[in-house]
TrEMBL record:
The chain crosses the membrane at residues 15-40, 46-68. This is DUF6526 family protein. Pfam families: DUF6526. Keywords: Membrane, Transmembrane, Transmembrane helix. It comes from the Bacteria.
Length: 144
């Protein structure tokens, strides 16, 4: 497994991000073309509409299948980082920190986590700025 750092921390799942996404896009475009041609020729319009609606449903399902687990992971990360901050400082994370900021802070080492958390809250750092400010990267190989 590669060493994880700022430049290599983004995870891409090839089957989802390349294969499924391209197949969905291609099939959606094909269903739109078929719908337009059916309307122009006035043939199989009902079938074309049903095919198009089914593709819209499949695209929605594919997006939700990606978003729901990420939401669950984000909630788990918030709880884990809140516990880690509590163990290190005896206090809870600043409630001003957004979920995206907390998710970005998960890469910080224990030594710099409390200070960077306070800085992120006071300066309202963007998640990318937080990641760039990390000196000792703590890898997270479990996130998809």
């Amino acid at each position: 497994m590669r060493i994880q750092e700022y430049q290599t921390h983004v995870r891409v799942h090839p089957i989802y991000h390349y294969v499924l996404s391209l197949l969905l896009l291609g099939t959606l475009v094909t269903s739109i073309v078929y719908l337009v041609l059916s309307i122009i020729k006035e043939e199989n319009v009902l079938l074309a509409i049903l095919l198009f609606l089914m593709m819209i449903l499949i695209v929605i399902i594919a997006v939700l299948l990606r978003l729901y687990p990420l939401k669950a992971q984000d909630r788990a990360i918030r709880a884990e980082e809140n516990l880690r901050y509590y163990v290190l400082t005896g206090e809870l994370l600043d409630p001003k920190l957004s979920l995206a900021q907390v998710v970005a802070l998960r890469f910080t080492s224990d030594n710099e986590f409390p200070e960077l958390s306070k800085r992120a809250a006071t300066e309202n750092l963007q998640p990318d700025e937080i990641k760039k400010a990390i000196q000792n990267w703590r890898a997270d190989y479990n996130r998809i």
